[in-house]
Automatic annotation (TrEMBL):
UniProt key word Nucleotide-binding: no
Pfam families: Ig_CycH, TPR_CcmH_CycH
Cytochrome c-type biogenesis protein H TPR domain sequence ranges: 145-256
The organism of origin for this protein: Halopseudomonas salina
Listed SUPFAM superfamilies: TPR-like
Gene that specifies this protein: cycH
Protein keywords: Cytochrome c-type biogenesis, Membrane, Repeat, TPR repeat, Transmembrane, Transmembrane helix
Protein name according to UniProt: Cytochrome c-type biogenesis protein CycH
Repeat (TPR) residue spans along the chain: 151-184
Membrane-crossing residue ranges in chain numbering: 6-24, 92-112
Domain Cytochrome c-type biogenesis protein H Ig-like residues, every copy: 290-395
Amino acid sequence: MTDFWFASIVLVVLGMVSILWPLWRRHQHATVDRTALNVALYEERIRELDAQVVAGEISPDQRDATLEEASRLLLSDTDQPERLQRRRGAPWVLVGAAGVLPAIVAVLYLAWGNPDGLALSRDMAEGGEPASLEEMITRMERITQVQPESGEAWYMLGRAYLSDQRPAEAARAFDESLERLGDRPEVLAQLGQARFFASGNQLDSAAVAALDKALELDPNEPTALGLLGIAAFESGDYPGAISFWERLLVGMAPQSAGAQAIQGGIARARERMGDSGEPQVQEPVGNAVIRVRLELADGIADEVGPEAVVFIFARDAQGPPMPLIARRLQVSDLPADIVLSSSDAMLPDVKITEGQTLQLNARLSPTGDVMQGTHEGRIDQVTVGDGQQATLVIDQAVP
């Protein structure tokens, strides 16, 4: 910022000089050049009168009378600039304007300028691309502070929050984006996804409304189709899940990993339906399980009551923010010994494997909406199928 302020000072000084320089030049011409000219003309007049006396054209008395009149004119012309200057008074007004110019410029810049935006623009130009997710979030937060009316900036901030497993904050950012951009299908779908994650992988009414609106605007919106298919599968509506996922497959490359996962989910939904349309029994759990004892820290249960909801879920710490497996309990169920397995998967084709390392999270919500969660706990690493029971305590207040 030093070079900016230096350049500003230089420009202000140039502005002051542009005001004062003509005044100084006019004063010099008025007090020096004009006086010298009048004196030279007076001396020339004396020589002419002397020559006329010698030639006999005028008498000495006439010469003296004419010379006296010329003297009065000289004195009058010499004093005239000063009298005109006093009468106009304009130079003093301009001098005063030049003096207050720096203060006016400073006040106007503080009122209309954007120093934070200038600093951010310079940091972005000099710093290059963010080197980490944390740096990206910090940058997007600064952008939304400097340009709070930028719906695109809020959208990018929401995506960054989702990648950082902060779905509640992501949902708020997507809400801000919608306020500025209006109903856009991709933003609505991301809002539904954020609320889905924030509520412990459950679709609340607000999430469903957002996803439905996204499909109304774009019937092929992939995020909305995928999430509604998951919700239908989890609720036992296997025909509905198949319908959503088949629509999703239309816009995907047939041999892509995503398409294969969706095809696996469709096959699993059809297996659950069976020939008679009734769900089939899930396969045995086996050794690919996570054993965990879930507890509440002392005093928390008394604050929220026995009907408060607890969500426990596991995700790949190095992968996408979406949980792989999840389960919903109540405070009255705790403490509880829980066995998590592929039967708790969020996507039909997702399976956890023995030896896989996952991150384990739990969140407490008095309302059943994790966006309104009050406390949480986390274990950064648990190993699937190691036979050991991890202890997860919900003891941290949600920021």
